[in-house]
Amino acid sequence: MIQKLKENYSPLFEDALLTEIEKIGVYKEVAEGEKLMEIGQYVTAMPLLISGAIKILREDKDGDELLLYFLEKGDTCAMTLSCCLGQTKSEIRAVAELDTQLIMIPINKMEEWTGKYKSWRNFVFESYHSRLMEMLDTIDSIAFLKMDQRLLKYLQDKIKVTNDDVIQSTHQEIAYELHTSRVVVSRLLKNLENLGKIKLNRNSIQVISI
Amino acid sequence: MIQKLKENYSPLFEDALLTEIEKIGVYKEVAEGEKLMEIGQYVTAMPLLISGAIKILREDKDGDELLLYFLEKGDTCAMTLSCCLGQTKSEIRAVAELDTQLIMIPINKMEEWTGKYKSWRNFVFESYHSRLMEMLDTIDSIAFLKMDQRLLKYLQDKIKVTNDDVIQSTHQEIAYELHTSRVVVSRLLKNLENLGKIKLNRNSIQVISI
DNA sequence: TGACTTTTGTAACCTTTGTTACTGCCCACG
DNA sequence: CGTGGGCAGTAACAAAGGTTACAAAAGTCA
């Protein structure tokens, strides 16, 4: 664990902090598709990502979903931070997008470390900053873009995060994450295929050039 | 200034911090409609709101606007915080919604105070939390609600922030903030009037019951 | 193989939202 | 007092996206 920790967080954290993380943090692996956090659940630990990716989803009262953003290695979940400190319930759902390795830090260390370690403080602020920027980006997409543009952006984000130009998703799954209907996604994907930007197959989409 | 500061932040901040703020902070008044921050501008100070309200707007590359949320007394701007620490440019526009009193803190104090004062740290985290929650709320609105619901929510937020059930806005101004067209706003407002929820007048909307 | 399920393609239609165009109204100001 | 500019009402139309329905293709499994 300490090995992987250092690979990802070593220039960032001072040694004393790394040692503390090693002592207190709990190493965990989650498989693709596994749920890490559900809406309304109490938050007891915050994750530091070592590898893989986690998608963060929002849901409204009718059960309609929307993908907010992805977390990748070196990231942590600002929502979790936020909820920890406020002792409130989670506002989001977190699902592993890939097989993921992470270290869980119990929340009671949060307050202590933010006082004690400057590097931790910077990390936490940096995380908040990143997440705010990602939320802004999400808002830009849903407010200013039409569905075809949003879909394109979705495909781009997906291949970036999985590092694979073949996307293993059904149209229905994409529709959920963009909060639209399967028929609309199929329609727009077919357009993209006709433009030669993608190649459609059952359960997968090969991205050619977008 | 110290008077007003204490009224709003006294239970929150320890005395030593209040004294520092008094020494270093710059008291400022901005009139309704005045611009406090423009997109792309560098951030050199963060505001602590004493009274009034500030609206935070996002703009896309075509100049289309969207209202993100309001800041009120006791609030500070997490975007500013965020930008300060990262030394980056502002991603948002800030405009006074009402006549507003605030104290500007130079950003170089940020890092120092977050290390030194626990109460400041909590305040900053609390601010990030609030702003993240407001961003989530904004996302919910634009992703899950139809325009009529969004308009209703807009009117509710507006009367809450101004503490006045008469809204002094033109349909065009509302259209900008919701990122839609004037005709659509007029249409939906007329519906609300027919339902007896509001009374329309030139340059103002009287909210009766929503 | 054959029955069944899941996924995708597509047409037809509806609703919501955006656009254009024109009208009348109110108000400020010369 | 009249005229010009900003504001609001409305109709007619266009475009985007959502819904329903159905069929075909692909996979699954007994």
Describe this structure in words.
Two copies of one chain form a homodimer. Chain A has 210 residues and is α+β, with helices and mostly antiparallel strands. The termini of chain A are far apart. In chain A, a hairpin with a 5-residue loop joins strand 4 and strand 5 (65-72). In chain A, helix 4 (108-116) crosses helix 5 and helix 7 packs across helix 8 (182-194). In chain A, the strands form three sheets. In chain A, strands 2-6-4-5 form a four-stranded antiparallel beta sheet. Chain A has a three-stranded antiparallel beta sheet with strand order 1-7-3. A three-stranded antiparallel beta sheet of chain A has the order 8-10-9. The model of chain A has no long low-confidence stretch (mean pLDDT 93). Chain A is built from eight helices and ten strands. Chain A is elongated. The interface between A and B is large, with 35 and 36 residues. Chain A binds a DNA duplex (30 and 30 nucleotides) through helix 8.
What are the SSEs and their pairings?
The structure is a homodimer of 210-residue chains.
Chain A: H1 2-9, H2 15-24, E1 26-30, E2 35-37, E3 45-51, E4 53-59, E5 65-72, H3 78-86, E6 93-96, E7 100-106, H4 108-116, H5 118-144, H6 147-162, E8 166-167, H7 171-178, H8 182-194, E9 198-201, E10 204-207
The structure holds a DNA duplex (30 and 30 nucleotides).
Q: How many beta-strand elements of chain A?
A: 10
Total number of helices of chain A: 8
Radius of gyration of chain A: 18 Å
How would you write the strand order of the largest sheet of chain A?
Answer: 2-6-4-5
Q: Runs of chain A with pLDDT <50, length 5+?
A: none
Sketch the topology of chain A as an H/E string, one letter per element: HHEEEEEHEEHHHEHHEE
Overall morphology of chain A: elongated
Which class do the helix and strand fractions of chain A yield? Answer: alpha+beta
Characterize the main sheet of chain A.
4 strands, antiparallel
Biggest chain contact? A-B, 35 and 36 residues
On the 0-100 scale, what is the average pLDDT of chain A?
93
Instruction: Determine the fraction of residues in helical runs of chain A and give it as a percent range.
Output: 40-55%
Assembly state (oligomeric): homodimer
Q: What share of residues are in beta strands of chain A?
A: 15-25%
Q: Termini separation of chain A (Å)?
A: 38 Å
